[in-house]
Write a structure and sequence with these properties.
130 residues, Immunoglobulin-like, 6-stranded mixed β-sheet, 11 strands, elongated, Ig_TRAPPC9_Trs120_4th, Trs120_TRAPPC9, TPPC9 protein
């Protein structure tokens, strides 16, 4: 589950926020399997989509994270949740997207890391209301 500014997000919803206001993010990982899972790393990467196949991830002048954009998850037991909180601060107006990826964080394996990517979250940063 993904919440942006307290609202549940899915890939069809555009979340609107104001430039200069921190936007709270919450990502909840629920383990529906019968076995414990982990360790994982959760990474959130903002980008702009130029609608021509190009994604701009170089946004350090437009967006900043309040806190970290990567969280380490040790283990999630069966039917339990692991919830992570963060915040984004938009410095300019525009349409932005947030990639949220989970990947295995086990360096003792010789196999490539496996990834689980959630649908991108669409966030529209607007001018503050005067």
């Amino acid at each position: 589950d993904i919440l942006v500014d307290g609202k549940v997000c899915d890939c069809d919803v555009v979340v609107t926020c104001q430039v200069g206001d921190p936007v709270p993010l919450q990502v909840k990982l629920t383990n529906w399997s019968k076995h414990s899972v982990g360790p994982f790393a959760l990474t959130m990467m903002p980008y702009q989509d130029y609608q021509n196949g190009v994604h701009n991830y170089d946004l350090q002048d437009a967006i900043t994270f309040v806190g970290s954009n990567t969280f380490h998850i040790d283990t999630v037991k069966p039917t339990k949740d692991s919830v992570y909180f963060g915040a984004l601060l938009f410095l300019y107006t525009g349409d932005f997207y947030l990639n949220i990826k989970f990947h295995e964080d086990n360096c003792s394996r010789e196999l490539p890391l496996s990834w689980l990517c959630l649908p991108s979250v669409h966030i529209r940063a607007t001018e503050p209301v005067a």
